[in-house]
Amino acid sequence: MIANILRRPVLFTGLVITLSLVAIALLSLVWTPAQPSKMQILLKLKPPLSAGLFGTDHFGRDLTSMLMVGAWNSLSTALVAVALGASVGTMVGVFLAARRGWAEVIGMRICDIIFALPPILSAMMLGAFLGAGRFTAILAIATFMVPVFARLTFGAALQIWTRDYVSAAVGMGRSGFAITFTHILPNISNQIIVQVTIQLGLAILTEAGLSFLGLGMPPPAPTWGRMLADAQTYLGQAPWLALLPGLAIALAVLGFNMLGDGLRDLLDPRDRT
Amino acid sequence: MITILTRRILSLIITLLAVSLLVFSVMNLLPGDPASIMLGTSASPDTLAALQKQMGLDQPLPLRYLAWLAGVLQGDLGNSYTYSVPVAGLIAERLAVTLPLALMAVVLSVAIAVPLGVTAARYRNGPVDFFVGLFSYAGIAMPGFWVGLLLILLFSSSLGWMPAGGFPGWDAGLGVGLKALLLPAVSLALAQAGVLTRVARTSVIEVMNEDFVRTARAKGLGESAALWRHAVPNALIPVVTMLGLQFTFLVAGAVLVENVFNLPGLGRLAYQALSQRDIIVMQNVVLFFAALVIIMNFLVDLAYLVIDPRLRAKAQ
């Protein structure tokens, strides 16, 4: 297994990046170099290495600590949103594949409609009523993920339904529900895993966008997106404030994308191009 | 062809109606009365009642939906609460910024992605392919609004070559307008280009293995001629598909990038409507964006039918 991973540079790089980020996020729960919300106005806008590893922001808060806690906030929001979207989407997809007929036509059309609403816009609509916050962000991202997973699992499940062993199970009188659980889901799980990984990258990107617009977790909780929004004002004065959170977002997305591509290569060699 | 077209258009209309129903439901069924959200907690009961009446909130829901829909079909989207002007005019005005921005981003992304993808496919597994792969990974991973900040940092703050944001309006001249949209368009285009480069590369590699390309080579055509004259045109269908699918992300990106560059576009309008709690504007802008995405996908669908006669036969 380990030799298999080492032989694949994309998978290996993706794994290293994501594991490091997860480790940093988990570490931030028990330790950060400073209290991330502690303001020290005398130390404001200090460049990297002159106060802490990555310097300080306009309130003199330690950027390293904020980035660490931001990693946790960003990863956990993305993870919950994707888990929610993937579960509901997969249930819808395999259900529609088992039912076909009108359910399929209507279900897929609903998916098209939800897919037409970018999560930023649905978050704005939800935010107007429910108020901005982590819950709104998760709900908006998860809603967008539902059609993504419903379409993927629907297509994949349909292929499995045409296999001989599934026809045999149908012939033996097994119910659609039982076949879905014993034959369909286990056979499409690899594709779901790959898609979850790739969508985690997209969820992080979306969460950052929502936080940038002020639709993510409210202050003082540090998020990468809001750190970028704050950095706009000090762009000429303190460019590191804009560089570092953006780099963190890009690195996280890159890590999940590479991990997803690597996993696809490893788990589903037929898809390789 | 006409039957397929009729069927597609019918399905487009049903989808658009369903989207309008969804947007309306979200806006009207969520907890919170739109009028009190717009006025805030300090509003007097009289003002609240007046606004409720003006917005038709005293009518039953299905009637309100039908009234809104009838208005949308006639181009009457109601009046903005904060700007006190018709929403339709507001959207048209902002569209004059967002549409050119999106078009520039699409043109730029294709202009970057197709040559890169084709070159990577031509020199597959070599160093060029490796660097193009890196570019595409980076393009996908970097948030457009961050790229925007970096571009401002480099071209406005440091070099002073470009405006840091804002839009002088098309009255100031075509060149000035396009210049103001260039950096935002590049920020939007990079992510798109990252995705499209990958698709173009994969697609060209697949087509290069087809019989007709082998025949082209066999009749003595050089590698470049076989590639550009035969393989590339045939490899473009997946690129067009991806462009259609990516449109949702382009719209989302535009909302963010317009806010970074302070562009008076539709995305900024939606954002301002949110902060001013102008539900009427929000509802219509969101519907407009969603309809745009659906119509784009419809056009891509139609484009296939025109490009590929096999799909035409299949659809019948």
Automatic annotation (TrEMBL), chain A:
**Annotated keywords:** Cell membrane, Membrane, Transmembrane, Transmembrane helix, Transport
Q: Transmembrane residues, as ranges?
A: 12-34, 75-98, 110-131, 137-158, 192-217, 238-259
Q: Name one GO biological process term.
A: transmembrane transport
Keyword Cell membrane among record annotations:
yes
Ranges for domain ABC transmembrane type-1 come to 71-260
InterPro entries in the cross-refs: BP-dependent_transpt_permease, MetI-like, MetI-like_sf
Q: Where in the cell is it found?
A: Cell membrane
Coiled coil segments of this chain: none
For this protein, the record's PROSITE patterns field holds: ABC_TM1
Q: How does it sit in the membrane?
A: Multi-pass membrane protein
PANTHER family on file: OLIGOPEPTIDE TRANSPORT SYSTEM PERMEASE PROTEIN APPC (PTHR43386), PEPTIDE ABC TRANSPORTER PERMEASE PROTEIN (PTHR43386:SF25)
The family assignment reads: Belongs to the binding-protein-dependent transport system permease family.
For this entry, the protein name equals ABC transporter permease subunit
From TrEMBL, chain B:
Name the membrane topology term.
Multi-pass membrane protein
Name the keywords, alphabetized. Answer: Cell membrane, Membrane, Transmembrane, Transmembrane helix, Transport
Question: Mind listing the GO molecular function terms for this protein?
Answer: dipeptide transmembrane transporter activity
Output the InterPro entries linked to this UniProt entry. Answer: BPD_transp_1_N (IPR045621), MetI-like (IPR000515), MetI-like_sf (IPR035906)
Where does this polypeptide localize? Cell membrane
Tell me which domain of life the UniProt entry assigns to the organism this sequence originates from.
Answer: Bacteria
A Pfam family annotated for this chain is BPD_transp_1_N
| Boundaries of every ABC transmembrane type-1 domain copy | 95-304
- From the record, give the transmembrane residue ranges: 9-30, 95-118, 130-156, 176-196, 235-257, 285-307
UniProt entry tagged with the keyword rRNA-binding: no
Note whether Cell membrane occurs among the keywords.
yes
GO cellular component terms, alphabetically, are:
plasma membrane
Q: What family, per the record?
A: Belongs to the binding-protein-dependent transport system permease family.
Protein name as annotated? ABC transporter permease subunit
Q: Which organism is it from?
A: Endobacterium cereale
